[in-house]
User: Which sequence fits this backbone?
């Protein structure tokens, strides 16, 4: 009997704790039990929204032959709409008045001003990125010193996978406020290799060697054809630019292409007797007075 009384007393204490009124909104009491139920329903709604968005993507969007980036944008939009609906359903089922958003909104407004300004900026920037689509999943971009493929676009940040296989989380404000280079927006990308040769070199032979160095390299386009620019008379050398185009898909491999061109150039320059000069400096000594010289044994 003592054990039953103890167990019954424990249950009554639990029930009293769950029925404890935390606060009241428009005459509706919000108890601990109602709050815990709401949290469980919100978590369940979050999971169901994600699952439903993925199902719509797999069963509907996948059959429409849409771009991967556009499918991703639709999937995220569906997720947020479903999440909003499940949140409103949870509040309705718990008889929580919608006016709770007035209180929450006021608290968030204070937090936004003093604490969360950066978070809200990223949130709004994420919406703009999804709507305006300056970048898409799979694009090779360069922003704020980070370059790589766009893996995912979130509502707050974007994941970029660099050529060194490092995953970098970039705030969405960077794509709105900073200079963004999207290398895959065009089908071709122009690039160059610069070299300096000795003043005694024949420019026409240099042009021929530069064009030979780029011929046959995988990834380099033949239309438009590579060209050579006599860029400048440098301090120590004649400066030439080898201009060529690569496909947008080959752009992440541009460092390897440039390296192969330089390997070819090194061999071709040596075969044609063309030198790459060292920097030259003229040193002037003040000889107004004798320079002491010591000979050490």
Assistant:
């Amino acid at each position: 009997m003592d054990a039953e009384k103890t167990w019954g007393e424990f249950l009554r204490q639990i029930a009293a704790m769950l029925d404890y009124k935390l606060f009241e909104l428009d005459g509706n009491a919000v108890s601990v039990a109602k709050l815990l139920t709401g949290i469980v329903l919100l978590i369940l709604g979050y999971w169901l929204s994600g699952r439903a968005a993925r199902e719509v993507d797999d069963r509907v969007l996948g059959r429409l032959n849409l771009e991967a980036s556009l499918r991703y944008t639709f999937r995220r939009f569906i997720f947020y709409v479903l999440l909003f609906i499940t949140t409103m359903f949870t509040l309705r089922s718990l008889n929580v008045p919608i006016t709770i958003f007035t209180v929450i909104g006021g608290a968030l407004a204070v937090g936004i001003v003093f604490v969360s300004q950066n978070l809200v900026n990223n949130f709004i920037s994420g919406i703009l990125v999804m709507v305006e689509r300056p970048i898409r999943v799979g694009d090779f971009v360069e922003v704020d010193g980070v370059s790589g493929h766009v893996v995912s676009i979130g509502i707050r940040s974007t994941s970029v996978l660099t050529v060194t296989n490092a995953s970098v989380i970039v705030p969405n404000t960077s794509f709105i406020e900073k200079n963004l280079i999207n290398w895959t927006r065009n089908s071709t990308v122009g690039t160059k290799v610069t070299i300096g040769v000795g003043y005694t070199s024949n420019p026409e032979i240099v042009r021929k060697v530069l064009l030979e160095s780029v011929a046959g390299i995988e990834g380099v386009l033949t239309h438009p054809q590579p060209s050579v620019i006599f860029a400048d008379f440098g301090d120590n050398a004649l400066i030439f630019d080898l201009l060529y185009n690569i496909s947008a898909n080959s752009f992440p491999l541009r460092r390897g292409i440039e390296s192969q061109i330089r390997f070819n150039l090194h061999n071709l320059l040596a075969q044609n007797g063309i030198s790459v000069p060292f920097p030259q400096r003229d040193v002037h000594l003040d000889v107004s007075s004798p320079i002491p010289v010591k000979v050490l044994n």
In short: The chain has three domains: 11-115, 135-182, 188-271. The mean pLDDT is 79. The radius of gyration is 34 Å.
